[in-house]
Amino acid sequence: MEASDVLPDDLVFMGQPGFLDEKRVLAAVGEDPGEEECRHVLLGSDDLGPRAEVTYPPGTAVTPRVLPLDDGTWLTFDDDTVHRWRTG
User: What is the pLDDT of residues 17-75, one digit of tens each?
Assistant: First the structure.
């Protein structure tokens, strides 16, 4: 499936999407795959359609380096720091 089939606003996939849980896929998306700046979106696992955009606390860097763990949590990597996240 092409990014243009499921993502709005000429966004492309960055990094590697992965299953957050059985119903959702977490993906880093942005305007240019060569840039570090991106957004994280939740896609439905059935049709890969966008369901929501992940918001982080102010000051949190959002990069393509994300690792969904298939248990409803995911890791993000920023320089030498690893964070574990869960949807609310």
Answer: 999 999 999 999 998 877 878 999 999 999 888 999 999 999 888 989 899 999 999 99
The tokens of 63 are what? 């990069």
* Contact call for residues 71 and 21 (beta carbons, < 8 A): yes
Question: For the whole model, what pTM was predicted?
Answer: 0.87
Q: Is 3 helix (H, G, I), strand (E, B) or coil?
A: helix
Side chain identity at residue 59, one-letter code: G
Q: How many Cβ atoms are within 10 Å of 45's Cβ, its own excluded?
A: 15
Q: For residue 10, which amino acid is it?
A: D
Predicted pLDDT of residue 70: 94
Q: What share of the chain is helix, strand, coil (3-state, %, to 5)?
A: 5, 45, 50
Print burial letters for 55-80: b (CB count within 10 Å at least 16), e (below 16).
eeeeeeebbbbbebbeeeebebeeee
